[in-house]
């Protein structure tokens, strides 16, 4: 097979050529692997696209995110690094993305963890921290929803035609499973208690 590495200053060529878009993607990957000191592998399994989009925005500037098939990543790394370990090859299986950066990977990982994207809870989610429904006007009209507040043992009263919560009430502790009723109540109150972030599988520093 006729080929050349990006390290020698040549672009990737294959005797039986890939489709042009794959060749372009491969060449871009090889260039990024040389341009950035750190490449972080992202686990994309069940990661909502909106979360990835938010982090693309947050990390714009000195870092960039790419979603590419693992087979192309493997080829690019082998060309640029002169080969990869079995451990890295294993990490490239499944749904994976790349985060290229010249930032300190430990500091960047902390930034990622601190800037999770909030969403409404769903039935079966695990509470990440203690959840409290605050006292005050919910803005919700009285009706069948009152029984859901009752199930959650949230004290309520009716004032000015709206449901009021009588006092701050803890409805779940960290590690508790969130029920469908609680998820519905939190949504009605516009409380988004779940933080989602990109999950870093590994970081490769300077190859």
Word description of this protein:
With 207 residues, the protein is an alpha+beta fold. The strands form four sheets. A four-stranded antiparallel beta sheet has the order 2-3-1-11, covered by helices on one side. A three-stranded antiparallel beta sheet has the order 6-8-7, with helices on one face. It has a two-stranded antiparallel sheet with strand order 4-10. Strand 7 and strand 8 form a beta hairpin. Helix 1 packs across helix 3. The N terminus is likely disordered.
SSE topology sketch:
Elements (H helix, E strand, L loop, with lengths): L19 H16 L2 E6 L5 H10 L4 E5 L2 H12 L4 H6 L4 E6 L3 H10 L2 E3 L11 E3 L2 E2 L7 H7 L4 E4 L2 E4 L3 E4 L7 H9 L5 E3 L2 E7 L2
Antiparallel strand pairs: 1-3, 1-11, 2-3, 4-10, 5-9, 6-8, 7-8
Task: Spell out the key features of this protein.
34% helix, alpha+beta, 207 residues, three-stranded antiparallel beta sheet, single chain, disordered N terminus, 7 helices, four-stranded antiparallel beta sheet
Question: What's the short story on this structure?
Answer:
With 207 residues, the chain is an alpha+beta fold. The protein has helices spanning 20-35, 49-58, 70-81, 86-91, 105-114, 145-151, 180-188, and strands at 38-43, 63-67, 96-101, 117-119, 131-133, 136-137, 156-159, 162-165, 169-172, 194-196, 199-205. Helix 1 (20-35) crosses helix 3 (70-81).
Give the DSSP E fraction (strand runs of 2 or more residues). 15-25%
CA-CA gap between termini: 24 Å
How many β strands by DSSP?
11
* SS field, number of helical segments: 7
What is the N-to-C order of secondary-structure elements (H for helix, E for strand)?
Answer: HEHEHHEHEEEHEEEHEE
Helix content: 25-40%
Shape: elongated
Radius of gyration: 24 Å
């Amino acid at each position: 097979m006729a080929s050349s590495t990006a390290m020698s200053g040549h672009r990737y060529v294959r005797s039986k050529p890939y489709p042009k878009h794959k060749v372009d993607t491969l060449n871009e990957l090889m260039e990024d692997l040389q341009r950035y000191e750190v490449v972080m592998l992202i686990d994309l399994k069940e990661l909502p696209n909106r979360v990835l989009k938010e982090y693309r925005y947050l990390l714009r500037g000195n870092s960039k995110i790419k979603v590419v098939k693992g087979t192309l990543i493997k080829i690019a790394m082998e060309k640029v690094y002169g080969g990869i370990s079995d451990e890295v090859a294993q990490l490239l299986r499944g749904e994976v993305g790349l985060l290229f950066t010249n930032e300190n990977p430990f500091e960047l990982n902390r930034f990622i963890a601190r800037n999770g994207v909030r969403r409404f809870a769903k039935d079966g989610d695990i509470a990440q921290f203690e959840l409290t429904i605050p006292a005050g006007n919910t803005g919700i009209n009285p009706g069948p929803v009152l029984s859901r507040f009752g199930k959650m043992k949230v004290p309520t009263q009716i004032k000015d035609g709206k449901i009021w919560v009588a006092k701050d009430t803890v409805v779940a502790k960290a590690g508790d499973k969130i029920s469908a009723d609680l998820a519905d109540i939190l949504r009605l109150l516009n409380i988004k208690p779940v933080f989602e972030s990109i999950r870093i599988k590994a970081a490769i520093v300077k190859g």
